[in-house]
Each structure stands twice: as C-alpha cells, then as structure tokens.
# Entry
Amino acid sequence: MKHITFYLDFISPYAYLAFEKLPEALMGHSYSVSYKPILLAALLKHHGQLGPAEIAPKRDWTYRQVLWLARRQGVELQLPASHPFNPLALLRLAVACEAQGLPNRYVCETLFKHVWHGGFDATDAQRLQAVSQHLAPQRAPDSDAVKAQLKAHTDEAIARGVFGVPTFEVDGKLFWGLDALPMLQDYLAGDAWFATAWSAAAAVAPGVRR
# Structure
C-alpha cells in the first residue's frame, strides 16, 4: 500500500477540486492519505513567487478556469465573496482537530465547503465560530501548540521541495496541481516510465536568463 501526503491550503480552489476528485482518480489502487494543512503564502514567499490572485489578469483567468473546471467535473463550486483572504483561522482549526495536526477527510471537506460553497465570506466571524463549533476541535485553534504545528507542517513542506498546492507526495516524489492527478495515478499503477524519466527530467541544467 502506498501512502500519499496531500499538502493543502483551503484558500486554493485547485486544492479543493483535487480534494474532490482524488478518490475517483485513485479508484482501484491501494493507498492511504494524510491531509497536511500548510500556509501557501509562506511557500510563495520562500520561493519568491506571487500568488495567482496577486497578478490581476491571472486572477481573472484563475476564477474563470476553476468555475469551468468545476462545471466540467461535476463539482459544486461558488467563488467566495472575497478572495484571496487570510486562511490562517481555517488552517489552524484543521490542525486543532487532530493530535498530530493531520485532519481527517471529513474535517477537510467541511472547511473546503465553508470556503467554496455558497459564495460567502470565508473569514466572517460568525461563520468561523459556527464551523468551529460544528467540528469541535480537540485543541484551541489559537493555542501556541497549534500555531507551531501548522508552521512545522509548512516548514516540512518547504524542506521537501513543495512550492504550491495541491501537492501530493508519495515515495519522496512530488506531484503538483489538480492536473497532476492522472500522473499520480500512473505512478501508483506502476508505470515503468517513472523509473528513468523522473530522474532524467531532474538532471536538466538550468539555462542562463537574458
């Protein structure tokens, strides 16, 4: 049985779509999944990148594409009232729901739907209170221990080379993005391509920028 670590941030519509499609994409394979919340903004800062929503034309394209993808894939998705937003409260709530900071699928589903269903404000105080009461976390989301655990998850992701969400890690290999699900599926199926091409792609030297 293969184990998959799913690095996610609830701010990402692609992470939500990948979360919804993962069981279907991996049907017939033997696997287990750990859901690991991380702060996407910290990854972007570490790698010197802007988020898609911080570049105006890319922001518009992103929202149009995810709405089309959701429709095409049969996934319910409405854009939140404001985006991007600060996801820390949701990430900490997810971490607080399990002793090791690894929320189960139900917790992640609840928080993704909190953001991506209904077109509401994901950071509205009353809504945050309601979802917290519903999930009944084991620990206080604003505790130092929970904050440290979320930071540790994020630092671990950076150390492993994660640069965005969703990212799936299995056997030390990283599969990034919603569109990586078929690639992940092929790897789990034992496709011989990965035995040589994976290392060959990583061996290409960086070119000189002009």
In short: The chain is about 50% helix and 10% strand. Residues 56-73 form the longest helix (18 residues). Residues 118 and 181 are 26 Å apart (CA to CA). The mean pLDDT is 96.
